[in-house]
From TrEMBL:
Keyword NADP recorded: no
Entry-linked Pfam families: DDE_Tnp_4
Annotated compartments: Nucleus
Domain DDE Tnp4 intervals: 91-254
Gene name as annotated: LOC128200713
Protein name: Nuclease HARBI1
Top-rank lineage group of the source organism: Eukaryota
Amino acid sequence: MDTNYRKAIPIEKRVAITLFALGSSAEYRSIANMFGVGKSTVCEILLEFCTEIWRLLQPSCFKMLPLNRENITELVTGFEVIGFPQCLGAIDGCHIEIHPSSDEGVDYYNYKGWYSTVLMALVDAKYRFTYINVGSPGRCNDSQIYETSSVKKEIDSCPLLSEMSREISGVNVPVFIIGDSAFRFSKQLMKPYPFSVNQNNGEKVFNYALSKTSRVVENAFGHFKARFRRIGKGIDNSVRNANSIIKACCVLHNFLNDNNDTLNAKWLRALEELETRRQNPCDISYASDDPINGEMIRTALCTYF
């Protein structure tokens, strides 16, 4: 508020400070000097903005859960356009560099030798996040995070996914999601056939179709990190505040996609250079597959392709 000593920082300036902080990799001290405020003020404004943007936009930007017939139809139609039937979304995890305290360091130390937190996301055909799980330590595997997530409970218990089955190659195929080989294979989650030297042509074609479709989640993460350089470079806030920043950026990513915002090619090139210097952690699967329920569906899709 305004006082006898100074005027309050206008809302327009607060938004400008936050968007510049999220969209660049500049230090908070440099941002403070640029806008004529204190370093602690930049951090305070950033966290206030992220908290409010999540509170206000999250209900309209993440409408998938709970699942209903309208949402399922919209998501499945989007993937059918790009050539994969009965797909609800593509799921994967993205490691974001953070700087935890020494007490928390062991949990956040990932397989490639740096500290990270995991953003698990389900993505639709338009590169929008339909579900996010933020804050799991970097040592956690994608499958471990998914098995305990709310989206898995929703997918496993939703009767509409079976009711909206479609006959493919003589098999009633329910609506499912797709993921890479790190996830547990089941009738609700399709993943590629394991690599084999003598792999038949049908399995190769299925793996190619699934890989091509699941690129939507990799592209979404690429666009996400390119738009918000603070995410791509690494978050230097505390772990608790880092989660708030990541969630706000996810909401803004969906907001920009809905409004047909364009991506600068320079941002994508800068991200590629950063990613080549920082290798992605390995995905190691600890969960056992459930081939009895899923193999018939995967075989039907293999025949379809």
